[in-house]
């Protein structure tokens, strides 16, 4: 399928009010024909232009000057020694030299304004500007929707509501889906985003997460969240179609005219800030910063040693946070440096003052189930250790009834545990 037909077909997948803002590929394609006609009317055929690469005495420079409102494409032909051109050798070039201009051995420059090419770039820039206006409008609308969702979700996923853990599952699944992992505008990336969004919605259905939400506010927030992501995927598709259309039409210009429209337009666009970079990225970042953070994930608060929630979080002087149980074990093994950054004696210097009380209160509020499980684990571990101490003590008293001063490694460990200042 030709791209002109392809873009028309793909347009029907986009919202109807976005379609007029797509680049009109077929119109630009017709304008290229007029550019070629103008060049040929002046004797500047694609074939002749390509031969200049092999002629050291002549050079052709194509440039795009002016600004977004008034682009000025032109050709500049430079001849090192005009007298070296035989009358029958370069009739095209001789035709371009004004009759009033005397031919000498001095280098000669001929500048040719391209009217039809100016029309082509004026049209292309107008359509890109038109699309940029849509970008601004949609960005404001998206941010407004994100603001509304933020308000809804702050209440619906409150730690005082029963839906908190369901939302945590939803967002965990969303992160796993990685819908916008690849933010480029290529067609393959858009297709991948569509597939990942479909997978996300199917998994929501399979896990019955929507029905697990108990409040109407939560269900409405989920509908809004899915709608925002659907629109973001569509917006990515819109950007991809326009980017592809622009790339293809410039390449077609290069091929048909023999000029370097692609490279010249790239420089022109950078100098005149034609493109609005990073719009999709900024919108996705807004979702990440303002929506995803409403429901904190326990993985972000794991102890880097045991990889479970850092209950009774001890913040060392280097800033790293660990659960108290892991630091007690570190003391037991006489490992006094930070396990992460190896700051000397960071563990050894920690005491009860290193307990991060505000973080502990936050964990109690948002991770009650995880903390309950961590407490049980700690209790089981402590019970096993106590049992080992009792068994060791009985064994020692049986083996050395008249030598109570004999101690084993286990009893020494127990003594160190009792002296640990962060317990």
TrEMBL record:
Keywords assigned: Metal-binding, Zinc, Zinc-finger
Domain named RING-type: residues: 303-342
Pfam families in alphabetical order: SPX, zf-C3HC4
InterPro entries assigned: SPX_dom, Znf_C3HC4_RING-type, Znf_RING, Znf_RING/FYVE/PHD, Znf_RING_CS
Annotated PROSITE patterns: SPX (PS51382), ZF_RING_1 (PS00518), ZF_RING_2 (PS50089)
Domain spans labelled SPX: 1-267
Stored SMART domains: RING (SM00184)
GO molecular function terms attached to this record: zinc ion binding
Protein's name according to its UniProt entry: SPX-domain-containing protein
